[in-house]
Amino acid sequence: MDDFSIDRQELTGALISMEFGPGGRIQQLWASDPSAPDDSEEFQFVAPPLMMGEETTEDYFPGTILLGARTHPDDPWIVSRNARAEAIGDEDDGSIVAFEYEFSFLEEIRATGKFYEIPGAVPQIAWDVEITNRSRRSIEIGELGFPLALNNVLEGFATTDRGLRELWNDRVYIHKSFGGAASYLFAQRLTGRPPGLAIFPGGDTRWEFFNHVPASLSTPFRWEGIPVVYVHSQAAIEREGWAEWFSGHTALVLEPGEERTYQMRFAPADRHYSDNLNNTLAACGRPALKVFPAAVAPVDVGIAVEVSGATPTRFFTDIEMDLETDADEEGGFCFLKPSVPGAVRLAFEDTQDRETETHLLFIEPIGELIQKRATWILEHQVNSDALGFEKAILPADISTGLPITDPEAFIGPFGIESSLADALFLAEKNVVYPKQVEIDVLDEYLTEFLQDKLQNPGDGSVGCSLPDSRSVATNFGRPQVYPLVFCLYHSMARVARNYGSARYDSSEYLKRAARTVVAMFAHSNDASFHGTGIPLMSYLPELIKDLREVGLKTEGDALAKLLDRRDAEMSRRRYPFFSDGQWNTTGYEEAFSIARRRGNEEMEERALRCAYAARSLSVDWWWYGSDKRWIEDNDGTNPGIFDKGELCLGPTTTANSLMFFKSLDRDYSSLQESTMRMAFGGMLGVWALIRADGAASMAFCPDAASKQFGMSGVTGDIGISLFHYLRGVGAYVLPSRSSGVTTFGCHFESETDSGKEYFVIRPWDGVGRRVVVRQFAVEVIAEVGQIVEVKIDSRKRHATVTMKNNSDSDLISQFRVKGMWGNHFEVAGKEMQGENGELKVTVLLPPGATIRTEILVKK
Predict the structure, then answer these.
(1) Sign of the alpha-carbon torsion through 634, 636, 641, 646
(2) pLDDT tens digits for 628-676?
(3) Which residues are 186's β-sheet partners?
């Protein structure tokens, strides 16, 4: 069978056009913005031709079919793909493009494909694949996969502002979701601008499994690889020896003469300003799912799942529990609250006999996980015997529970940055849950490891590699290591200020933090430092504020000048997001903070939009709200990294989630629901990486084709994620037009007491430092102690704040209340004056005590 002529087949629809090449594969796929098709430029989604060892991306363009079959259960699987195809049908009918595919060594199977448009409110291109057994014996189809090589190679552009602008405008992320009938791939432009491209099964077809083409995981390219979606995947699992995936694997037996048709659809979609992806799927008759608060949640909080685009007839889970469910012609609802933590597979059948599933994860209360994580660090990661690492907090192998002391792990940044990351978490943990033995370990770490081996006492410079365990650090130009150090000193200053039993007073730690910042500006490599956001730099203004408050005005003013200079330099760039390798998600955090400080609303919006284009709304606990991440070139010394397999729930996931919460410092005219849900998911997702015993993994890899499939075996930089959570999390009550009130980090209810209506907020975020009731304009912020409950009447004249002391010493609790209806108060029987609507309250908290403070507005 010969390929069709050089005159390529084309299909032009209302919003999507396709150009076909050899084998019936799609060479180019153009789509228009569905909301403004006449005013927008078309965008091309198919990957360019690239070599991957002995294969090319063209071997995996959309339209490729991977077929595996056998005629006897004891025979090996024969696998082939459509290297050749012949155009069939009426060549004059431009509304349909059809092919008969040729599969080498599978002559018993006839396969045809037909592309055509389905008109309607959302015009779609459908691809029907019909497989027929034309032999006289049964054939088992064990593999039916569809590769989708899209334009997701994130390199090849100059590192100038213009080059980076072109990169962000010309490339896509691929967001995957696998839940049976609700499965999809969504190609999202890096800018978050439309059009996006949704690819999903049609009819009664369902997807059960995915992997990335193995050859694409070992290339020098910066990308996530080429995804393959499977209708049947039993042969792929058996042939490759991969571990089973979450949804299981199927095969199909075709009797002689029997045929089966499968369908895939292509539709343009937008996701940024509204959740148009979900709306598009529902409009196309596919089940679409939303979860609240996230796909990972504490077991005592529960998870709600909303369904649109289908009418569920029955919900069920793989573990026994009571479900609260509802359904009508517009969709359905299910609330899960199991009795014990763990992973849960939730599935439902709908009125069209389709099955949809999602994977949720219930964790222990976050406050308990915070303390267990700290205990595990002390028991497993504090070095006691390895020479050259005295008193160090080291990364660990979580399968053995032993610290990693191999010198190879410290030649690159992995070892030192992982060490600093866990020390940073431990210090911030002791701001919330002080414990003397942990504070002592931190002080020993600072003295015996950081200051003895990593940070030069002469000029404050910090090295990022250790040539051997007996040497001092080298390579002082890596800017990413400096914020880890100055944030660590800053957290220790807060411990000393609040708890008081650290080795030095607060001002000494702050001086060391300030010196580290000055050294960063003096020693950082220009190419790595200037023009791109650096992780954790967003906390520099807080350091400057604390320096000034303790009387270190000279140091604070010096850092403020450096910060102003950096702000001005970064503000000149439209896309200050690149990294050493052109792309990762680390630059958004600081760029967003600078934009807010300088009132640059355009830059603020761009940073948030581009950051959230890199994360998923797939209702699976490992993808939901997670930023894109895979190996960086300088991660080669990480003992948990073996290829470029996708890594979920990395440290920027939490950092970039906080961008959304920082935008809630005032009332809003509208709440972007998709952005909110991605922020919620990113904040809670990190806790999926913490085991019940406190061991922690740096990431989760969902790709069975990757050598690092599953939980990463090393702790790595998990501490950065946890630090961001502890420093930035809060309890939020957010009004929205669609759902009335949405909450994060707290239980919220109204109750009547003595004839008055009260709003009651009880934080479950594990930290209890911030309660924000937006639009009602009430905030309670604790400097010391943990907020257990806030109760306020609807007229804002009466409130109670309940605080808890988590330490074993007396604490002077301090909290601020904003938004009460007046400025003169009676607090615990004493009259107090507010300032500009803010009341500051000080309460003595005995060890382990819980104290309730009553606040009355006098006038």
Answers:
(1) positive
(2) 998 765 566 888 888 999 999 999 999 999 999 999 988 887 788 899 9
(3) 175, 198
Asked if residue 226 lies in contact with residue 160, where contact means CB atoms within 8 angstroms, the answer is: no
Cβ-contact 709, 701 below 8 angstroms? yes
DSSP-H helix ranges across 159-246: 161-170, 234-240
Q: From the centroid of its chain, how far is CA 224? A: 15
Contacts of 848 (CB under 8 A, 6+ apart): 805, 806, 807, 808
How far, in Å, CA of 372 to CA of 354, rounded?
42
- How far is it, in rounded angstroms, from Cα 37 to Cα 172? 19
H helix count then E strand count, the chain: 16, 44
pLDDT for residue 5: 46
In Å, what is the CA distance from 395 to each residue of 67, 423, 498, 577? 43, 10, 28, 28
Q: Please give the torsion angle defined by the CA atoms of residues 642, 645, 647 and 648, in that order, rounded to the nearest 10 degrees.
A: -150
pLDDT at site 125: 98
Per-residue pLDDT of 230-286, as tens digits, reads 999 999 999 999 999 998 999 999 999 999 999 999 999 987 655 688 999 999 999
Q: Where are the alpha helices (DSSP H) in 189-253?
A: 234-240
Percent of the chain with pLDDT over 70: 97
Supply 859's token pair.
């006038």
**Distance (Å, rounded) from C-alpha 660 to C-alpha 742?**
14
Look at residue 622 and tell me whether its pLDDT is greater than 80: yes
**Which 3 state secondary structure label does DSSP give 144?**
strand
CA 661 – CA 224 distance, rounded (Å): 28
**For residues 586 and 192, what is the distance between their CA atoms, to the nearest angstrom?**
17
Give CA 509 to chain center in angstroms. Answer: 32
Residue 229: which of 192, 187, 195, 268 has the closest Cα? 187
pLDDT score at 162: 87
Beta bridge partners of 780: 771, 817
Q: What is the pLDDT of residues 28-38, one digit of tens each?
A: 999 998 877 66
* pTM of the predicted protein model: 0.96
Nearest to 277, CA basis, from 562, 35, 530: 35
CB 133 within 8 A of CB 258: yes
Whole-number Å distance between alpha carbons of 223 and 629: 9
Instruction: Please tell me the least confidently modeled range out of 340-349, 386-395, 559-568.
Output: 386-395
Q: Where are the alpha helices (DSSP H) in 296-451?
A: 366-380, 413-432, 436-445
Q: How far apart are CA 704 and CA 766, in angstroms?
A: 33
Taking residues 792-797, report their average pLDDT: 96
